[in-house]
Amino acid sequence: MSAASEVTSVPAVPAVLAVDGLRKTYPVRGAGHGHDFVAVEGVSFSLPAGGSLGIVGESGSGKTTIAKMLVGLEAPTAGRIVIDGVDSTAVPRRLAARRKRGREIQIVFQDPYTSLDRHQTVDACLTEVVRLHGRRSRTEVAQRVEELAVMVGLDPRQVRARPRALSGGQRQRVAIARALAAEPKILVLDESVAALDVSIQAQVLNLLADIREQTSVSYVLISHDLAVIRQITDDTIVMHRGVVVERGPTAAVLDNPQQAYTRLLRDSVPRPGWRFTQRTTNPSISTPATSDMEPSR
Prior knowledge:
The protein is α/β, with parallel strands linked by helices.
């Protein structure tokens, strides 16, 4: 038997999330029929089980619109979303359908304070979600709440507190624990560390890396911050004006970008030794037009 015939191929990891030709438009008031604003156009990607995908771009590039479509907060105008082999394109309307979607995919937003009930303790918040998603006995619920608190690094005093008594980083840990309480296959992190101090960002990102290793949950990480994308993702897609302009392994995309827009994003990040210099002129600076770039397929 030849050496070539003895080589065993490694089976591909199945996709837990597959997005094909996603499009989202919004009507423009007063513009007449056919003058819709295109927020997302022809976006396709897949996420393997246990993988982590970054979606990067400036404000208005369509990142958050994609996040909302993934979790069922917005209905796509066209395209398809498949989660764990099941078509999940439609927005779930019935309570049972919403709970089912919640067991598949959850989202953590940038500002946890607005998404947490300020009257609930952390314990009550987590208990409510755990009960909603199948844990019935009081002992099971209490054990799961304790597991979640330990997983995200909350101590017993913090678990008994209300959101207003917690720091921003602690609130974000609560938001992550609440999302994980549903035991989803996918966690969408929409600028989830953007409002935190850099040192707290690092702590939360390390926490997310640990959680991924412990639970095999898959991440879709949405950010404008390339340092955040680099730290926690395997692959990255770059968005500009609603379309994907570059994609690939995160290190390759950030270290050797092929598109002018990606290079512009990378070069806009201050580096060690950077000093602010006051401009004496007002040069015209323009970003590459979408038409100048080949959409990535």
